Amino acid sequence: MSISSRRPRRFMGAVVAGMALLLVPAGFTAAQAAPTVAPVTGLKIVTAPPSPSGELSIVWNASTSPDVIGYSVDVQDQPFGGSYNDFVPAGDPLTYTAEGLSPSQPVRFTVSAIAATEEDGEFASASRSVIGNTLGDVNEDGTFFDTIGNTFEYEIAWLATSGITTGYPDGNFRPSAPVLREQMAAFLFRLSGFSEYEAPDESLFTDVATTDTFYREISWLAEEGISTGYANGDGTRSFAPSQPVLREQMAAFLYRAFGFDYSHGFDPASFADTPRSSTFFNEIEFLALVNITTGYKEANGTLTFRGSQPVLREQMAAFLYRTVGVVYQLDFFPSGEFTIAPDAPIEPTS
Q1: Rounded CA gap, 202 and 247, in Å?
Q2: Per-residue model confidence as pLDDT tens digits over 220-257
Q3: Of 1, 66, 125, 199, which is the most buried if we count CB atoms within 10 A?
Q4: Residue 141: alpha-carbon gap to chain centroid
Q5: CA distances from 39 to 87, 105, 110, 143, 303 (A)
Q6: Is 334 exposed, middle or buried (0-12, 13-18, 19+ CB in 10 A)?
């Protein structure tokens, strides 16, 4: 089975230059994290954003454990999974610089303390991570006060470092709140990269004023055909900006925004609560096919999508994160097509 995206794609992952292998003394092998090896502390990004050169530098404090011979630094570009390792000897300054990074995608740095045990010569490590990009950094504890330990903490951090969300003035993200339709317009507009768009002088919707905070984003959503709003019955249309986005509507928004083209054919439906007669059946099935959503596993063993429920802000972060990963895969193929791997579930379900 193949799918395609007809909309121009502007989403490129972080490209890391200067790749190197993990350099360790001969005769040693990697071991699992051991409680006897203290992790590094004070890990942070020190490059002052913005960084036109595409570089990010990190620093950290030394492990307090004895016999530490150095530090493993893992650099992973997100959300696409490419990574490389490097090694910083214990005697060197505890700093590392990655080069050639994209300004629009986050990068995760993971630093592990490496110790040589006297008994068997194995390494033992304990790691700490920090997320950042050339627009700013997001520490391991989370961008927002209310997302620490959240299931989708990383995806929310990605949303923030990519400039797709700024959260609320009180420093919170409000992950369990529903996504409003005006917020969805803003998320998709910022992710699209169409910063040159100019909104019309007159609003396309009766309930969206030209002075509204998200007027430009909502206008773009309408002119791109991503949302047509609601008919008022008198030839005009409304957008209902303060209404929550339902999960089935979210599927349609993502499908249209990225120009995906897919027909489910005669295969069985993925979700027990989404029959073929559903308005957004193809859109929801597409999200399931490429693992943008895995649905909910109910007590009776069936999978459901719960399309009539509002999509939460934490879930939306995950959906956008996974969608960009799908777009990235499509960009690798000149024909705009790729084969779906059926055995690559994404957890946790949502």
Answers
A1: 30
A2: 999 999 999 999 999 999 999 999 999 999 999 999 99
A3: 125
A4: 17
A5: 15, 27, 11, 22, 41
A6: exposed
**Half-sphere exposure at residue 323, Cβ-oriented, CA atoms within 13 angstroms:** 29
| 232 and 296 co-located in one domain | yes
Burial of 14 (0-12, 13-18, 19+ CB in 10 A): buried
CA–CA separation, 289 and 336 (whole Å):
17
CB neighbours (10 Å) of residue 92? 11
CATH of residue 46's domain is 2.60.40.10
Final residue in a domain of this structure, among 100, 118, 138: 138
Enclosing H/E stretch for 160: helix 153-161
Cα-trace Rg, the chain = 23
pLDDT over 90, % of the chain = 37
Q: Token digits for 181? A: 């339709």
Res. 301: pLDDT tops 60:
yes
